[in-house]
Amino acid sequence: MNGLAGKNALVTGASRGLGKGIALGLADNGVNVVVNYRQHHKAAEDTVGEILGKGRRAMAQCADVREWPQVRTMVTNIINEWGRIDFLINNVGDFIYKEFDKLDVKDWHAMLDSNLNSCFYCCKAVLPFMRKQNFGRIINIGLGNAGNHAFIHVLPYAIAKTGVHILSKSLALNEAAHGITVNVVAPGLMNNGSLDDEQVRQQSRMVPMNRPGTADDLAGAVLYLLSDAAGYVTGTEILVSGGWGL
User: Which residues are catalytic, by number?
Assistant: First the structure.
């Protein structure tokens, strides 16, 4: 992928799971990676070690991206240490599976804070520096078919992700003149590494390609949108779902 080598990326929630897979995929293509994490310090340091082993620069940054002051401090630290942030991948997003009658107010706010507010905070913190560079790539992890369907069991999650899609298109329009693209990678049913065999079988029955998605599937779309090949692509969504939700 042309245009990636030597660039600096911030990946939120990159200590484990899909975020880690994206971070390692970036490192495989020559990108230096900041591994953001909230709780799992050891896992973040292990991910940093793997990236360093690939010959790229890496560092861990502890910040709860649901909190604006922590996001602002994290971004300032990265700029002070590395000088610039070229790529932002907003991967953080907790998930709750409950029917509406079992949801409480805390669940609602938790989904908005984790999935939508975190994305807004990180974009807001990074964009002034990208404008100064006249270059930047932002990729927000959304949800396949968010806004197009009813979601009985994941309502607040789906609403938050719908907000991410609208935010992304709006920022794409706002930042195009500054050399900054903003796009969404929208996964379907994914295996983040924590599913057992029965859960994998259950998801596979729901996906036309007969398997849940993987971190490699997600990373492939991310790498394309960060590359020079997608320099004229902004405000769009790449559905990474194996046909789920069509």
Answer: 157
